[in-house]
Specification:
There is one protein chain. This protein is about 70% helix and about 5% strand. By secondary structure, the chain is mainly α. It folds into two domains: about 160 residues, no CATH class; about 80 residues. The chain has a three-stranded antiparallel sheet.
């Protein structure tokens, strides 16, 4: 939020300036602590007008901080003018952010080479103090494997030359998202259909079981009555007389 507020302040100031005043404002913005995006400044007419004038170095400087790295500066320092110590430090921070956006695991050797740092102690101090504490990169230093594990990082401005690849990436992401959503909807429809079928079968089974229970209750009393109403036949009574046994009475 602090960086956004700073950017808004510089944008408002730049709208009312031109020429040398705009160039001076650009230099201040590039050195301002906590300000790491510059796209809105680059889009201002007063800033664009710096190109092709004796203040063109300021516009090139702003593009460097928006899209470039410390190695870009080392390769053509005359194009951007002499950087102050705060500007050099910020360019190293922005370079680290760019590296974090390209890979989730960055070797110490790569960081030292890209950031122009001389030893591991200097590198670790920079990453912890200027990246982790500044909130521009979240991650973990792995001293055993000599690498930086990146968990998250802020976004930088997108250069016009990068727009095509970014657009292509967004289109691929959109297609994958649509495919996933379609698969989810298909699975949802199948699940609903299977659930409805299972509920229907369950209801039919319960209905049949209920009919079986009712049928059993209806048949049981008539059988018992038939057993109770069965008379004792004369053969049975005669048998009882011949054996001298008294006829047993039903209970």
């Amino acid at each position: 939020m602090a960086g956004e507020a700073q950017l808004e302040e510089y944008v408002l100031l730049a709208k009312g300036t031109h020429g040398r005043a705009t160039a001076d404002l650009v230099v201040k913005a590039t050195a301002a602590p906590g300000l790491f995006v510059f796209g809105e400044l680059l889009d201002l007419p007063s800033v664009k007008q710096l190109k092709g004038t004796d203040q063109a170095v300021a516009f090139a400087l702003l593009e460097l901080f928006a899209y470039g790295t410390i190695q870009d500066y080392r390769g053509a320092p005359e194009r951007y003018g002499q950087l102050s110590e705060p500007q050099v430090n910020k360019m190293k921070q922005l370079t680290a952010v760019s590296l974090a956006g390209e890979s989730k695991m960055i070797a110490y050797a790569t960081l030292m080479q890209q950031l122009s740092l001389s030893n591991i102690r200097e590198l670790e101090d920079f990453v912890i103090g200027e990246c982790f504490y500044a909130g521009i990169i979240k991650g973990k230093l792995d001293q055993q494997k000599q690498c930086l594990h990146v968990h998250d990082a802020i976004s930088r401005d997108i250069a016009p030359a990068q727009l095509h690849s970014v657009l292509h990436g967004l289109k691929c992401w959109h297609k994958q998202t649509v495919d996933v959503l379609t698969a989810i909807e298909d699975r949802k429809a199948w699940t609903q259909q299977e659930t409805a079928l299972a509920e229907k079968l369950q209801a039919q089974m319960e209905q049949r079981m209920e009919l079986v229970r009712k049928g059993s209750k209806a048949e049981a009393p008539s059988d018992l009555m038939a057993m109770d109403a069965e008379p004792m036949g004369p053969d049975l009574m005669e048998h009882d007389r011949s054996t001298g046994a008294r006829p047993k009475r039903r209970r």
